[in-house]
Amino acid sequence: MTRVLLTNEQRITYGLPPAEGKAGDRRWPAFAAKYGFDPARPVQWEVEALERDELHALLMAAVEPYVDREALAEVLADEQRDRVLPQAVGERIAEGVR
What we know:
This protein starts with 7 loop residues before the first helix and ends with a helix. The radius of gyration is 24 Å and the shape is elongated. By secondary structure, the chain is mostly helical. 57% of the residues lie in helices and 4% in strands. The protein has helices at 8-14, 28-35, 52-63, 69-97, and strands at residues 19-20, 43-44. It is built from 4 helices and 2 strands, in the order αβαβαα.
């Protein structure tokens, strides 16, 4: 399993607003010390604060190394065939009705 996280660099780059963090989070003091935050005032940043297109791009970049291109091409071809056949049948039926 690979975790996809919002990095501190992304937080800064995108200027994401902080939200109040969980007061009992045991990880906060170490995080606060590492990144220069007040250990007494936990904050967090939500990936959902990113613009939709940017979030999509980040997720696609994280998933990309795991995509089997050959399998994807086969699935897309199957889906295309599944769309074309009903359309062709519908057109033939419509021609017969006229």
